[in-house]
Structures are given as structure tokens and as C-alpha cells.
Design brief:
About 45% of the residues lie in helices and about 15% in strands. With about 325 residues, it is α/β, with parallel strands linked by helices. It has a five-stranded parallel β-sheet, sandwiched between helices. A two-stranded antiparallel sheet has the order 3-4. Strands 6-7 form a two-stranded antiparallel ribbon.
């Protein structure tokens, strides 16, 4: 007996392996999947502007990376002692202007260099609604809880998104001819927009992604939203707010993602690393005991063998962590 409607995902010629350099931009669902990829030792540059929700903010950010135009102090705004950027998520905000600017431009420089070498750009659209700053007509990535009267809210049309991204895709191909794009629509419902407006928003994003996919051979689409709405439609798959997917739902969608884009060889690497990662995460009651020191030495040796077997996977952080524990630091 089948108690769910499984979403059929057509075979995709696109694959993702540990050899690929991946950049991910978009909503908090991009963060969910990106963090899992990073833990599985993929080469990922994750949300260099922080979480962005709408296609126009994501496009603006990518355009700025292409132009290699770092941020200046006069682009920061202050509110209640904190400095923010309307381009960025609040994780870049700080009570020190210099610190905020440093974090922003360090992430920017790394992302600019990464974009030129990225094999796969994974973009997650969250909402078609955007907020435009009344003062200068800029579409903001984050309102930072500034007064609603400071912004104009409107919904992008399918043609708005397609036109914006067609222009952007041309620029991306110019700096990186081999880049491939993977679109998905976030399964997180934006109920602050209202139930009906959320549906209109998601429908707009789905239609835009489909149109772009039709026009470009190097674009693929993964049905995150559809899996959540059909396979996981029961509220037991939602978090306490009844809007965000639960950890179980995120894991399930990630596993469907892996089935679609990971080869058997890639899955083998992930399973090998999972065992090592579990050993690294293990913390005993007695961290200074001889048994734990021996365990650390064995784990460090496993990391070295893994690194020798897969020299294209960076394990330097894990080696440093284990070495410090072994030395009692």
C-alpha cells in the first residue's frame, strides 16, 4: 500500500561530485542543503551574501560579484547601534562599522574568485515578492526590521524574472563558460504573505524556472517544493511554526537530491567520510585518558588515509582539530 504520492524526478544529465566546485545562493533551504553538502566534504561556497529570498536580490548580488565591486562604508546603514547592509543578511551586521564591512568584503572576495571557477551554481528561489527602498528604489536583500513605510512591496512577474536572469546568464557564461545552473524553489511557505499570495508567489517562481530551463540547455531543475507539497504534505513533516520543514523533511529532500545528482562513486566517498566524521564528533567522558588518545591517533590515521585516497578533498581542518585534541589543547 502506498500512503504518499511520490514525485517523479526525470533523469538528469547533471551530476555533482567532490571534484565539482559548487556555489549556492538563495533562501534558508539553500542553507539546509548547503550545510549537508559541506559536512559531506563537497567544495561549497554557501550564500556569500547570507540568505536571500527573491530572484532579483540574488541576481543583483551575482551581478555585483561579476563586476567585482566590493562594498564601501557609505553603503552601510545604522539602526539602534547596529550597522547593516541592505544587500546582506543580518549575520553580516555588527555594532562596529569596520567589522561589518570586513566580514562583507572578505566573503565577497572569496565568492568573486569562486564564481569564475564554479562548476555548478545552485539557486533556491524563496518568494517572488520583493521590497524596494523608497529612498533610492533599490530592491533590498533584507529589510533588517526597518519601518515598513521605508519600503514598497510588490510581486515580480514571470517575465520580470526571466528577463533579469537571461541577461545575468549571459554575463555568467562570459566569465565562466562551463558553469551549469540548478534551480529549485524553496519548500518553505511564506505565510506572512498570506496563503493565497504565497501560492501566487510560488507559482510565479515555478513558471519562471521552467521557462529559463526551456531556453537554456545548461539549466536543470530540482523539485524541492513539489516533494514537500506532495510526498511530505502531512504536518508531522513541519517544524513547530508549521511553515518550515522539519529536520526529517529536510533530510528526506536531501536524500532525494542525492539520488538524483550523486553517482554511486560519490555516495561511496560520502559513506567513507561519514564514518570518520562520526569518530571526530565522538567526545568521551575522560578526554585526557590513554584510551581516548589512542582513539584520536587512530582517527587521525584514518583521515590521512582518506586524504591520500582522495587528494582533491580538503581535510586540513579535521587534521588540525584532531591534532589539537591529541596534544590536549
Amino acid at each position: 500500500m502506498e500512503f504518499t504520492t511520490k514525485v517523479d524526478i526525470p533523469h538528469s544529465p547533471m551530476t555533482i561530485s567532490h571534484h565539482d566546485r559548487v556555489m549556492m545562493m538563495g533562501s534558508c533551504f539553500a542553507e539546509n542543503v548547503g550545510e549537508k553538502l559541506i559536512r559531506a566534504k563537497f567544495q561549497v561556497n554557501l550564500n556569500p551574501f547570507g540568505i536571500l529570498y527573491n530572484p532579483l536580490s540574488i541576481s543583483q548580488s551575482l551581478n555585483r560579484l561579476i563586476e567585482n565591486r566590493p562594498f564601501a562604508e557609505d553603503e552601510l546603514v545604522e539602526d539602534n547601534g547596529l550597522y547593516h547592509s541592505f544587500w546582506h543578511h543580518s549575520r553580516f551586521s555588527s555594532d562596529d562599522k569596520g567589522d561589518a564591512l570586513r566580514k562583507i568584503n572578505e566573503a565577497f572576495a572569496e565568492a568573486h574568485n569562486c564564481l569564475k571557477q564554479t562548476d555548478i551554481l545552485l539557486v533556491t528561489f524563496g518568494t517572488a515578492y520583493v521590497y524596494r527602498l523608497c529612498a533610492n528604489k533599490m530592491v533590498v536583500g533584507n529589510c533588517h526590521k526597518f519601518p515598513a513605510a521605508d519600503f514598497e512591496r510588490f510581486r515580480l512577474s514571470v517575465s520580470d524574472i526571466v528577463s533579469e536572469w537571461n541577461t545575468l546568464l549571459g554575463k555568467l557564461k562570459a566569465i565562466n563558460p562551463n558553469i551549469k545552473i540548478l534551480f529549485t524553489v524553496s519548500p518553505i511557505r511564506h505565510f506572512k504573505d498570506g496563503a493565497h499570495d504565497n501560492q501566487l508567489s510560488k507559482a510565479t517562481l515555478l513558471l519562471a524556472a521552467e521557462e529559463l530551463k526551456k531556453q537554456h540547455e545548461t539549466i536543470a531543475y530540482f523539485p524541492s517544493y513539489e516533494i514537500m507539497m506532495d510526498e511530505l504534505r502531512d504536518y508531522r513533516f513541519y517544524a513547530e511554526d508549521m511553515v518550515h520543514p522539519s529536520d526529517v523533511a529536510v533530510q528526506y529532500i536531501y536524500e532525494r537530491f542525492a539520488e538524483t545528482y550523486f553517482s554511486s562513486d560519490t555516495m561511496k566517498v560520502i559513506k567513507e567520510w561519514d564514518k570518520i566524521a562520526a569518530a571526530i564528533a565522538h567526545r568521551p567522558f575522560d578526554e585526557k585518558g590513554a584510551d581516548y588518545k589512542h582513539f584520536l591517533s587512530l582517527t587521525l590515521n584514518k583521515v590521512a588515509l582518506f586524504k591520500e585516497k582522495y587528494p582533491y578533498i580538503c581535510c586540513s581542518e579535521e587534521e588540525k582539530l584532531l591534532t589539537n585534541r591529541l596534544q590536549g589543547d
